[in-house]
Known about the structure:
CATH architecture of the largest domain: Alpha Horseshoe
CATH topology of the largest domain: Serine Threonine Protein Phosphatase 5, Tetratricopeptide repeat
Structural class: alpha/beta
Distance between the termini: 33 Å
Number of domains: 3
Helix content: 40-55%
Shape: globular
Radius of gyration: 24 Å
Number of strands: 14
Mean pLDDT: 82
Low-confidence stretches: 174-182, 313-327
Amino acid sequence: MERRLAAILAADVVGYSRLMGADEAGTLERLKSLRRELVQPKIAGRSGRIVKLMGDGLLAEFPSVVEAVLCAVDIQQEVAGREPDLANDRRIALRIGINLGDIMVEGSDIYGDGVNLAARLEALAEPGEICLSGTAFDTVDGKLDLAFEDGGERQVKNIAKPVRVYRLRTQGSRDSSSGLSEQPLSVPDKPSVAVLPFTNMSGDPEQEYFSDGITEDIITELSRFGLLFVIARNSSFVFRGQAVDVPEVGRKLGVRYVVEGSVRRSGNRVRVTAQLIDAATGNHVWAERYDRDLEDIFAVQDEVVQSIVATLAERVSAAEVERTTRRPIADMAVYDLILRAHHHMGIWTIEDYLKARDLLEKAVEIDPSCAQAHGTLAWCSAFVTWFEGEAEAPLNDAFESARRALSLDPQITEAHSGLGWAHLISGEQEQALHHFETVVRLNPNNANALCHLGYCRAVLGNTQGGLTLLRQAMRLNPYHPDWYQESLGEALYMARDYAAAVEAFNRMGQKPPWTHGYLAAGYAQLGRMDEARDEAQAFRDAAKEGYSAEDYIAMDLRMYRDQSIKDHWLEGYRKAGIEI
Length: 580
């Protein structure tokens, strides 16, 4: 397979399903005209080539980053000037991402992390905006009379290291397209807080996982308090590596308070600083510094949690604080292994889940009495089953690890989550529902748990109840990972809102194989057969060797108790040309 360095441009239409729902025939004709009259000539004129068209999106390759950026600017400026007689929310607007990276070439198609990152950058762009990776920006810096904005480092799915993002706003970007701009989130009635990723001050990038782990644990502990509204980890970590404007963070996340901090680890000592800021005024409400031996890190975390809770919700009694603090992990090496495993699980690939499982197996070998290690291993093993399909061994491992964890601590949420997924994959829906409800009861601010519970309720036939919980999870986690959108899309399909389901699936960045199948069914139910057939073929092509698209569907259908729901999915698949 040929390899080469190339500039990759990824683009898609903002709110395509919404536009199609309002005027299907007209939108499709306008998109075809846009491609024919503007996009294709601009790309060819800058020495680029269109690699492929994907429904409302496209992927193009250029030999030069400068040419790719100039092409993107030309396209965005001319798109902004088209359709002046239409309202803002009816016009076609584009998002564009550009990356410079190594690609693999097979026939006319291209593959590799360089391509994946371009797609991730496109998803980060606002309407009318262009997002560049750090490598692409370094190539054009000083060569173009354009004003780029440093968007800081962002952690994106399936890319191991954070990516520096640079934004280029053109005519028609967010500031000048009021009909497409994001509305600020309203602040909840109860005390609301976001914990930003604590800065790693150790001078060693390899220690980033440690400061991330401290942050995640503080978020988890705060989330146990029903009196608080706590933003989920994924959304807080959007601001990692950025020069933070606290009032802007408050507006974007819809919270009154923001926690910032830092971690410095040196030898057997650790220093943790934390400060609580009123996002509305920018005033510091509380600040503290903790210098401890590394073995005392859990006491530090509990002190930080208690101080923040006491400030935000005076009615939370000392007894409540004591009740909700976590049982410490005795061995620091075990805690370190768990943090490393969480890092890999966040990347969301089968390879990283297998690495996480190895780390967690080492943790339980070191300390067989650690409930958190067993519980996290249960969760990890359940998702190894999901990635590998009909692999019964990891599913059995998930049950065994979860039961071991619960025998040590009946309230360990990771074990209940792992059991929930293990039961759901096994077709034991009622048992799954019980465990997901238990997690939400133990931690009502856990956005992931709300998403799992909402999905499970939809699977059991309560689609409206499921959708309510899924939207609640997205409010707690505004910058949620792709699988939230996938769960929402499935629930919307089951509710027969096919246009909204397709739009939810298309908001995902890199789609796993089965999502192409969901899209094929959704497009088919809408009568958009060309797109349905394209997604059906993508589903077949993406299925791994020895595990076909039909095998994925068979595993998926095991989760549904109601035959009418299974028949509804099968109807969509068959309309798209996927025979089971």
